[in-house]
Amino acid sequence: LRRLTIQQIFESVISTHLYPRSQISIFVQVVQSDGGDMAASINASTLALIDAGIPMQDFLTACTIGFVDGTPILDINYTESASSGPEVTAAIVTKSRKISYMQMADKLPIQHLEKMMLAATEGCLMVYEILKKKIKAHSYSLLHARGTAPS
Amino acid sequence: LAVPVMAMQSAAYQKLHPREYYKKFLEHGIRPDGRGLMDVRRTAVSLGSIKTADGSALAKVGGTTVACGLKLEVGIPSALKPKEGRFEVSLKLASLCSPEINKKSLGRTFVGNDKRIDAMAATIKKTIASSQMMNLEELCIKEGASVWVVYIDLVCVDFSGNIFDAALMAVGGALRSLQLPPTQIAEDGEVMLSREGKSSRLTIKRYPISISFGILDQKHIVADPTAEEEKLLEGRLSVAFTTDGHLCLVHKEGRESISSKRINDCLDIAEKYAEKMVKKHPKVFGFVAS
């Protein structure tokens, strides 16, 4: 289920037309799991594709939302997700804020879902900010190493 | 003489530019088969068709037909849940379900794509669990030692798009028709079918009813896609509500992304659809007390 999902959502953001007759393989290995595996896999894949220099139309960021006592909780860990509360995993295309992947398989009143979806979008944007900072820092250090860093 | 030429031209247009051809329909709020964008095809559910199975049902959504057979086996409960039975879901497409089964186009299989089918079976299992439709403790034979394991086998015998909704309805019907045989436990702990005692049924508190949408792009979302439409619709959204009005599944996948507002629109449609289904098939989706 995860493999297929990652393949499908990245198909929409990777500029595959620039790589005709080629295959881009994404291998995801969960080294340590503490909840939010799917979201971490998607975020890691985004970073790996950027590291590989594969052109993408946008960042795909993901996060997991739990719900306790009427409040959405961002990025739940294993203990929090093992409790029987509802859980939403969502991935968004960052610029357009459109939802590319969403999974909610719990019994849930519909009003709560709306709150969780809003929280998911905000959460993904927060992840985007973190990723962007890291990528910029990494890029600068690469340019620095080449001696072509902007002063 | 103009009519055959027009018909040929439109058929050619459909072959050459299937997406544009389809979009032309959608822009007028209609689809090639005459339905509105959010209309679901006619549904039918029949229970108990397969006598050799412990429970069975046949569900149709339009032309898509999914048969569900349940087989009971005695198993050992998990240590964390010693009083609960289990269920496993498998889904497969029979070779006769579509002339295009396993046909590959551009390296992609549309019908009979194994990964898609396995993923769908996993989602169906999740939906059954999240809907809390049955009390798994009713499957207990002896706490900590023996429980019933329900093997839910789904077979699509006719594929016309949207297996998910038909499959979920078939599971609901099959679980309703499930008969748990009376058992007795021998001295050595082995569970045997007993000749006395009556079969019991599961108490089904609610049924999950799903409606699947295909996403062409942000503006065009259609409910219950046919097989031809599924080829063009790169995004999918399945929403399931229980018959007593609780949301139990939101599953969005595929290449096209949509805004959360559109997802909310689909949720509203799915909620009304679940209510409608109870009224339409009261013998299947009405409440069952064991």
How would you explain this protein's 3D organization?
The complex is a heterodimer of chains A (151) and B (290). Chain A is α+β, with helices and mostly antiparallel strands and 151 residues long. Chain A has 4 helices and 4 strands. The radius of gyration of chain A is 17 Å and the shape is globular. The termini of chain A are far apart. The mean pLDDT of chain A is 88. Chain B has 290 residues and is α+β, with helices and mostly antiparallel strands. Chain B is built from 7 helices and 16 strands. In chain B, α1 (2-16) packs across α2 (18-27). The mean pLDDT of chain B is 87. β4 of chain A pairs antiparallel with β16 (247-254) of chain B, so a sheet runs across the interface.
Chain-wise SSE layout:
The complex is a heterodimer of chains A (151) and B (290).
Chain A: H1 2-13, H2 37-52, E1 60-68, E2 71-74, H3 78-82, E3 87-93, E4 98-104, H4 110-146
Antiparallel strand pairs in A: 1-2, 1-3, 3-4
Chain B: H1 2-16, H2 18-27, E1 43-47, E2 55-61, E3 64-75, E4 86-93, E5 104-105, E6 108-109, H3 114-131, E7 140-142, E8 146-158, H4 163-177, E9 179-180, E10 183-185, E11 191-193, E12 200-201, E13 208-217, E14 220-223, H5 227-232, E15 235-242, E16 247-254, H6 260-280, H7 282-285
Helix pairs in contact in B: 1-2
